[in-house]
């Protein structure tokens, strides 16, 4: 029988915080890239 | 305990954690301020007196609608009808305040009504639609997204029908009475040679009233309580249904004020007036720290959100960036602001 990895609630929240933090930094990087592309394109 | 005090009293490891949290929680502000600095570097006239007055004016025009929508967001809802209510009110106000003798007057036999009466009509229209939104949300437990989507369409249909009555035949309404445009766009103070329009002061006065309602009245405290936990608020004796109805009604009143101001500010009002205003207002509220999980928000935050958003978009226009690209940037800013808000909630959990 396949064993499922059980996580406690605290670990689930920690993983979510890490995931959202990574999403925030990814989003800011994408926003910065879009800004730079837009500024270069306007010249 | 303030953040600086916490950092001073913490040990090295806690200091790093506090600084890291501060940087992540304010990452969007830091980014937007850096963007403004870059724009100022590329366009030295970006923050000139005329430009600053322009930014202040545009922010002041959007502030009442943002404060109205912020109230709905604090209740874990939203209000998609805001823009169309603004458009409807703007067209009604414009039609009742056209100059006597104007060739394309909508109601030729009607003289321009007194300003206080038209303002009352504007507030009444906004309040009635807001009350409908609140009633349907509170009494029937319908999601505010669906209710306000419906009233958005109803308001738009009413606006289109209104524009076809009298002599108008669907055209835009312009030729406003000089007393109306003077009341809104006139000026008593200037920055340098650039006059500050009167509606900036009206917006600030209204913001002070909303701050008082949110922070110093029982209704305001109940609004935050219902947004945080409606069941706990109910058990504590708060009339949750009445609070929800009154918050949406107050939001409607704010949209009425916005419509009254916009009619004169724009000068020519049509079915497109108010289109997508709610998107900017929601974006500004979220950037300003109003949380979609409910019960969190401040008037100061909404002001910061409105000003920052306006600063960025005036800056992008100054850089001649494609208007279509601005939609992408706006969407990304909203996404990141929501992610930051969700992270704060998860960290608390």
Summarize the structure.
With 43 residues, chain A is mainly alpha-helical.
Structure description:
The complex is a heterodimer of chains A (about 45) and B (about 350). Chain A has about 45 residues and is mainly alpha-helical. In chain A, about 80% of the residues lie in helices and about 0% in strands. Chain A is built from one helix and no strands. Chain B is mainly α and about 350 residues long. Helices cover about 70% and strands about 5% of the residues of chain B. In chain B, helix 5 (about 80-95) packs parallel to helix 7 (about 145-160). Chain B is globular. The two termini of chain B are about 20 Å apart. The relative contact order of chain B is 0.18. The model of chain B has no long low-confidence stretch (mean pLDDT about 90). Classes of the chains: A mainly alpha (about 45), B mainly alpha (about 350).
Amount of helix of chain A = over 70%
Number of DSSP strand runs of chain A: 0
| Most strands sheet of chain B | 2 strands, antiparallel
Q: Decide which structural class fits the backbone of chain A.
A: mainly alpha
Assembly type:
heterodimer
Largest interface: A-B, 19 and 26 residues
**Poorly predicted runs of chain B:** none
Termini of chain B, distance in Å? 21 Å
* C-alpha geometry of chain A: rod-shaped
Helix-residue proportion of chain B: over 70%
For the largest beta-sheet of chain A, the strand count, sense and barrel status come to: none
Number of helices of chain B: 15
Q: Supply the helix-strand structural class of chain B.
A: mainly alpha
Order of helices and strands of chain B: HHHHHHHHEEHHHHHHH
On the 0 to 100 scale, the average pLDDT of chain A is: 78
- Measure the end-to-end span of chain A: 63 Å
Beta-strand share of residues of chain A = under 5%
Identify the overall geometry of chain B. Answer: globular
């Amino acid at each position: 029988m396949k064993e499922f990895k059980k996580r406690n609630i605290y670990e689930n929240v920690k993983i979510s915080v890490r995931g959202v933090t990574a999403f925030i930094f990814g989003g800011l990087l994408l926003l910065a890239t879009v800004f730079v592309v837009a500024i270069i394109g306007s010249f | 305990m303030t953040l600086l005090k916490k950092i001073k009293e913490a040990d090295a490891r806690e200091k790093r954690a506090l600084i890291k949290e501060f940087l992540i929680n304010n990452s969007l502000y830091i980014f937007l301020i850096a963007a403004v600095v870059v724009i100022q570097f590329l366009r030295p006239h970006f923050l000139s007196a005329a430009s600053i007055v322009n930014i202040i004016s545009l922010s002041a025009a959007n502030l009442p609608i943002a404060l109205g929508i912020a109230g709905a967001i604090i209740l874990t809802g939203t209000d998609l009808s805001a823009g169309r209510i603004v458009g409807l009110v703007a067209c009604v106000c414009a039609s009742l305040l056209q100059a006597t003798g104007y060739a394309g007057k909508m109601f030729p036999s009607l003289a321009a009504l007194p300003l206080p009466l038209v303002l009352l009509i504007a507030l009444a229209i906004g309040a009635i639609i807001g009350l409908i939104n609140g009633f349907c949300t509170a009494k029937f437990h319908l999601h505010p997204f669906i209710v306000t989507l419906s009233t958005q369409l109803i308001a738009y249909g009413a606006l289109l029908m209104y524009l076809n009555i009298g002599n108008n035949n669907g055209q835009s309404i312009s030729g406003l009475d000089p007393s109306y445009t003077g009341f809104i766009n006139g000026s008593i103070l200037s920055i340098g040679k650039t006059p500050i329009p009167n509606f900036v002061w009206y917006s600030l006065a209204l913001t002070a009233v909303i701050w008082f309602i949110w922070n110093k009245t029982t209704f305001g405290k109940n609004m935050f309580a219902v947004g945080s936990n409606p069941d706990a608020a109910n058990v504590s004796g708060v009339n949750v249904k009445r609070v929800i109805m009154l918050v949406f009604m107050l939001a409607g009143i704010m949209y009425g004020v916005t419509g009254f101001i916009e009619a004169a500010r724009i000068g020519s009002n049509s079915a497109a007036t108010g289109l997508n205003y709610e998107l900017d207002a929601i974006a500004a509220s979220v950037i300003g720290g109003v949380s979609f999980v409910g019960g969190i928000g401040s008037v100061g935050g909404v002001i910061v959100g409105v000003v920052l958003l306006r600063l960025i978009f005036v800056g992008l226009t100054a850089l001649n960036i494609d208007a279509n690209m601005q939609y992408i940037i706006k969407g990304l800013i909203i996404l990141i602001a929501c992610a930051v808000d969700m992270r704060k909630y998860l960290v608390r959990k």
